[in-house]
Amino acid sequence: MNIPIKHILFVDADREAHTSFNSYFDTKEIMVHNFNTAMGAIHYIKESQPADILIIDEHIKPMGAEQTLNYLIDELHFKSKVFVCSESKEQFETDCGVYEVLKKPLSEDEFKKVANVLGRVERDCSDLYSLDYLKELSGGDKMFIAQSIRLFVNTVGPRIAEIIELLHSKNYKEISEVAHNIKPSFEMILNKRGSQLCDFLAHHAKPNEFEYYVLDLKEEYELLEKQLHHDFAHEENW
Amino acid sequence: MKKKIMVIEDNPMVVKSLEFKLKKDGYDVVIAEDGRTAMKFLAETTYDLILTDLMLPFVSGNEIIEFLKNEYPTIPIIVLSTSTQEDIITEAFTMGVDDFITKPFSPNELSLRVKRTLSKTIN
User: Fold this and answer.
1) Do B13 and A184 touch (CB under 8 A)?
2) Burial A185-211 (b: 16+ CB within 10 A, else e)
3) Nearest 5°: phi and psi at A185?
4) Do A188 and B14 touch (CB under 8 A)?
5) pTM of the model as a whole
6) A56-108 pLDDT, tens per residue?
7) What is the least distance, in Å, from the CA of A148 to any CA of chain B?
8) Which of A2, A202, B64, B81 could form a disulfide with A180 if both were Cys (CB 3.0 to 4.6 A apart)?
9) CB contact under 8 A, A148 and B104
């Protein structure tokens, strides 16, 4: 089952560091991508795959963290949060910036620094929604598209509020039913995260998981609503 | 004369899309947001095709299919569902539905399947 996740790139040749890092972070909602050299991470980023945080060892082969970061930022325009693992430095400076350091050997205190940042990682709004499906369906009918978007906001918003109420009463069965009902609405505007969250809540969530994913769904909806309002508020049929 | 299709669906965006597409394809479309309303509409007039969701308020899609098969056995039924689970699809076909489309539907696929199901019934 694919549920929404955040991605950490962990670039370090030390296998023990990989093991301890993975045991702390590799959960259902966080995916750790391990690399033993900088080349693997560069290749991954070149392919535009998701990366919320990059953690890189100061002495990583073949060219060390400094040159690797300079390349990633100058050539690949890498913008995500970076931590550098170091045994001695307090902070790590390159031509491109100053980076926060995780002290080696990595301990739980260092992991918490990453976790704090991860909690604040902002969603990339460029892939929040797409009109491709509605355009295909309507042959590009602008009025239909604007009306559909307004319908999304007007109908999904109250159902999210309903889910929050149901969460307070721990009515997980009804949460599943509402999530099942609104899933196609997210799919029609090609919002993958909302659709995955609804699917998870409808078919897979255990009682102790509902709160986390309901709040995630609410957050996703609020982002979408804000973006749609920004993009469509000027439309005649809004 | 236009063919008359009843859509039984409770997601407003899916309803709007189906209505738009089917009307564009030249059909008369009637929307029932739940099973009770569908049964009421069925008592009032005849339909050439029913498109129904499975998870509906008050009366489930399976109950509607059972009702249709008993009371209106000649009306063809296409199920529209977000489910891709094999057991759900198999159960629908076992109950005698004519086709199964997953949501969100592909617009062209919907047109073709509706047309095919209606032409099979005429033949």
Assistant:
1) yes
2) bbbbbbbbbbbbbbbbbbeebeeebbe
3) -65, -40
4) yes
5) 0.69
6) 999 999 999 999 999 998 888 888 889 999 999 888 888 888 888 999 888 88
7) 6
8) A202
9) no
